[in-house]
Amino acid sequence: MQVFETFSEEETYAIGVRTGETAQPDTVYALSGDLGVGKTVFTKGVAAGLGITEPVTSPTFTIVQSYQGGRLPFYHFDVYRISDIDEMEEIGYDDCFFGGGVTIVEWAEFIEELMPENTIHVRIEKDLSRGPDVRRIIFE
């Protein structure tokens, strides 16, 4: 387990950048945290660390966004709105998980049975007792 503390959006983004710079093919991250905790900021950092220059947006309604043009393909899932696990089959999730790229899955607990065994769990938590911008980023 690794734990990082950040004190601004820029620092959360920077942890994402370092994560993207060191990510290897077929790495899957399960990203969790409350609304507004910084999941998208972290994800944008990962994309930047992979060398992706196009704007990264949350795929809340499209389920998955795919980005090319970096050193590895990048797939960003938001499975909050998945109502049936079969939807993931229709999307072709396994092509993303095992296609040589890097994948982030927000709300992965909704599809836990599909997550690869070697998934890296990343939890972002607010620490409001220390200030509104303090975050703890936990890699497990």
Written description of the protein model:
There is one protein chain. With 140 residues, the protein is of the alpha/beta class. It has one domain (2-139): Rossmann fold (3-Layer(aba) Sandwich). The chain has helices spanning 9-22, 39-49, 86-91, 93-97, and strands at residues 2-6, 27-32, 64-67, 74-78, 102-106, 120-126, 135-139. It has a 7-stranded mixed sheet, covered by helices on one side. A hairpin with a 6-residue loop joins strand 3 and strand 4 (74-78). Helix 1 packs across helix 2. The radius of gyration is 14 Å and the shape is globular. The model has no long low-confidence stretch (mean pLDDT 94).
Index terms:
140 residues, Rossmann fold, 26% helix, 7 strands, alpha/beta, 26% strand, single chain, seven-stranded mixed beta sheet
CATH topology: Rossmann fold
**Cα-atom radius of gyration:** 14 Å
Mean pLDDT comes to 94
C-alpha geometry: globular
Q: Indicate the structural class.
A: alpha/beta
Total count of strands: 7
Q: What gap, in angstroms, lies between the N and C termini?
A: 5 Å
How are the strands of the largest sheet arranged? Answer: 1-7-6-2-5-4-3
The number of domains: 1
Largest sheet: 7 strands, mixed
Question: Summary?
Answer:
26% of the residues lie in helices and 26% in strands. It is built from four helices and seven strands.
Task: Give me the secondary-structure topology.
Elements: E1 2-6, H1 9-22, E2 27-32, H2 39-49, E3 64-67, E4 74-78, H3 86-91, H4 93-97, E5 102-106, E6 120-126, E7 135-139
Parallel strand pairs: 2-5, 2-6, 4-5
Antiparallel strand pairs: 1-7, 3-4, 6-7
Helix pairs in contact: 1-2
